[in-house]
Amino acid sequence: MTEAPMLDPGLIAQLLPFDPFDPAFLADPYPSYAQVREKGPVTRTPLGLWAVTGHEACSAVLRDQRFGWGDGAAVADHFRHGADGSVVRPFIFADPPEHTRIRALVSKAFAARQVDRMRATAERVVHELIETARAEAGDGPIDLMRAVAHPLPGRMQNALLDVPAEHAARFDELSGDIARGLDPSFLLAPEEIAKRDSARAELYHYIGELAERRRADPGTDLISELVSVEEGGDKLTPHELEVTCTLLLSAGYATTVNLIGNGMLALLGRPEQRDWLRADPDRVPAAVEEMLRFDPPVQMISRVAVAEAEIAGHTVQPGEQVMLMIGAASHDPAVYDDPDALKLDRPAGRNLGFGLGIHFCVGAPLARLTAQAAVSALTALDLELLTETPARVPNIIMRGLAELPVRISG
Ligand code: HEM
């Protein structure tokens, strides 16, 4: 497990309204979020960060174009600097019109790829993974993170980009290294930053090579689509393509891993919910939405005010940073009845787990079908949870498990 960096606790208390490295927070952050939210939907920390905990306030900021990335100073260490002096931003960190342009091209390529056709792949892969784990473990314990939650999204991404089988394991490793480095750099240890940056450089290079091959010999994968996709005479440049594919890999891997892990932990600890789900497989899509709300993989979304704006009566000045606490908003009692309970039959809607507005997750259909395949196959098994408090990975933006030990009985 990655060690958390040694930050001065006094500094953390000035910067954030909670201590992300407190083991109690890591195990269950929702009571701390509730305490912050009780003071109002918006809190300003002593160092001037705006923390937004209310669902309505988070939704309003996500829809408001006065919040974005501006000059990008807050996220500049995620930009790609070319040897020719060019700078390419991943489009998740870009504002309109740059964001609009790249997002339109990516959406078109995703649509052409017909993600829904990947459902059969997800179902096949998850069954293979379960069979392999069963054969290896016999009556012994299985770590569901290692056996299913990690490899399934990895295999889906490799299928999406048609990565040659011999490179697939390295690809997964690199996506993981980047995902672990998604926390703000001031919260990361220097080795984590170095690993993230070198993983990104390796992926840019490798994707560049794959794109060259697909230009010469196009396939039906997403890279081939991105190489050729055009919108109003516009195309992605080679650097944009490398940065965009690397973003897709890093944004899609750990998030899906953690939706499966967090969701299965919640389910296995609540036999009555599992029985409800087992009674009708058509309930799985709704169940996955509730898992996303109950313990969202992405706990926070950041923005910077690019113009003076208001959030729930507070005036925010240009350049000030806003932290949208999705984990807190997802448990807001103003929106959710009994928010700390997992209720798989909860009415759909208003889920912020994939974001909202112009940056709404472009991979949501793929993430949903992948998680649905995993939850469906795993729910059908008789799984015994071997600990109700498995170790967590100490990241603050991405919430996930380091392990999920279970035993398959029957
Ligand atoms: C359970 C899995 C996933 C979760 C919880 C998730 C969550 C999110 C969230 C919260 C955002 C909004 C970020 C913001 O507003 O700043 C986002 C954006 C994004 N996601 Fe996902 N995501 C998941 C899976 C995926 C997958 C599988 C892919 C790609 C294959 C992907 C690619 C992206 C991209 C490219 C963006 C940026 C969109 C934009 O800026 O317009 N995500 N995701």
Automatic annotation (TrEMBL):
Q: Name one Pfam family in it.
A: p450
Task: Provide a Gene Ontology MF annotation, just one.
Answer: iron ion binding
Keyword GTP-binding in the entry? The reply is no
Keyword Nucleotide-binding attributed: no
Q: Which domain of life is it from?
A: Bacteria
Q: Which UniProt keywords are given for this protein, alphabetically ordered?
A: Heme, Iron, Metal-binding, Monooxygenase, Oxidoreductase
Q: Which family does it belong to?
A: Belongs to the cytochrome P450 family.
Q: What protein does this entry describe?
A: Cytochrome P450
Recorded source organism is Streptomyces pluripotens
